[in-house]
Design goal:
Strand content: 5-15%
Domain SWIM-type: 139-171
Shape: flat
Transmembrane segments: 270-288
Helix content: 40-55%
Largest sheet: 4 strands, antiparallel
Pfam families: SWIM
Low-confidence stretches: 239-245
Mean pLDDT: 88
Distance between the termini: 77 Å
Radius of gyration: 32 Å
Region (Disordered): 210-244
Organism: Arachis hypogaea (Peanut)
Bound molecules: zinc ion
Oligomer: single chain
Length: 291
């Protein structure tokens, strides 16, 4: 499934789906029932310049606000505002010290593409068009349009291994082909607007209307939930035994389907026995005296 999800072009995705079908018709039908644009890179659009398949970013945001989320709405929003204000100010200072034009994590990603490009052989077809070959695999790269038929170049805004191979063949600078959204200038532009500092609520402007009071406080039953509410069908981290299709094994009788608490061989404990004996004796005495 992950192999199919990671395919960046249609033909590769279809091939992987056929392999899934050969293993399990049910799995194939399940996957085909989900709109591909939601789970496979082969249908991702080019505008967002994002090929992320997982929602780890939401998890990071949730872990940052998990303490604040328990607070009343205004306090919670104030906490988030202060968190962002601090983060933006720190990032603004950090980027000032950064000397290169391309951002550090992007450089690491680009290096991976450069490393992978060594297996590809470029053949020039014209000034900017190349056929890039590896065995029976071939892709067409258009450097002028910044496109590759594997779609990764357009989707990520970073040259794919085929594009890197073509750029090297054209003796051009790879950095020219990195999308402008990954540059220091773009990062600076992102963090330039300042989140303004704010006075405490005692200094806020008072209105002529009565204060809005919080609703009566009710403590709901059970422990409050802290984890982010997951979407339908979303796997939790560390799936439970029942989700994995595994059955519990009893440590008393070693049979499947129950644990030692629900074991039919379980003996009642001593205190329960004593209570039962006292109860029976009392009942017997009551009956005896009434007769
Ligand atoms: Zn490519």
């Amino acid at each position: 499934m992950w192999r199919a999800a990671k395919c960046t072009y249609l033909a590769a995705w279809e091939k992987e789906l056929m392999e899934i079908r050969a293993i399990s018709e049910g799995a194939y039908r399940h996957l085909i029932g989900i709109r591909p644009k939601y789970w496979t890179k082969s249908r991702f659009e080019f505008y967002p310049k994002c090929d992320a398949l997982v929602n780890n970013m939401c998890e990071s945001f949730n872990s940052a606000i998990v303490e604040s989320r328990e607070k009343p709405i205004l306090t919670m929003l104030e906490d988030i505002r202060v968190y962002l204000m601090k983060r933006w100010a720190e990032n603004r200072v950090l980027i000032e010290k950064y000397k290169d034009d391309i951002l550090p994590r992007i450089k690491l990603k680009l290096q991976k593409e450069i490393d992978a490009s060594r297996w590809w052989f470029p053949v020039a077809a014209g000034i900017s068009k190349f056929e890039v070959i590896r065995g029976r695999d071939k892709f067409v790269v258009d450097l002028l349009k910044k496109e590759c038929t594997c779609r990764k170049f357009q989707m990520t805004g970073l040259p794919c291994p085929h594009a890197v191979s073509a750029i090297n063949c054209a003796k051009d600078d790879i950095r020219k082909y990195v999308s402008s959204c990954y540059t220091k200038a773009a990062y600076v532009a992102c963090y330039t607007p300042m989140i303004n500092p704010c006075n405490g609520h005692t200094m806020w402007e008072r209105t002529t209307h009565p204060d809005v009071m919080p609703p009566p406080h009710r403590v709901p039953i059970g422990r409050p939930k802290k984890k982010r509410a997951r979407g339908e069908g979303e796997e939790p981290q560390g799936p439970s035994t029942s989700r994995l299709g595994l059955q519990q094994k009893c440590s008393r009788c070693l049979k499947l389907g129950h644990n030692k608490r629900g074991c039919p061989l379980r003996r009642p404990n001593v205190s329960t026995c004593l209570v039962n004996i006292v109860l029976y004796i009392t009942l017997f005495l009551m009956l005896f005296t009434s007769l």
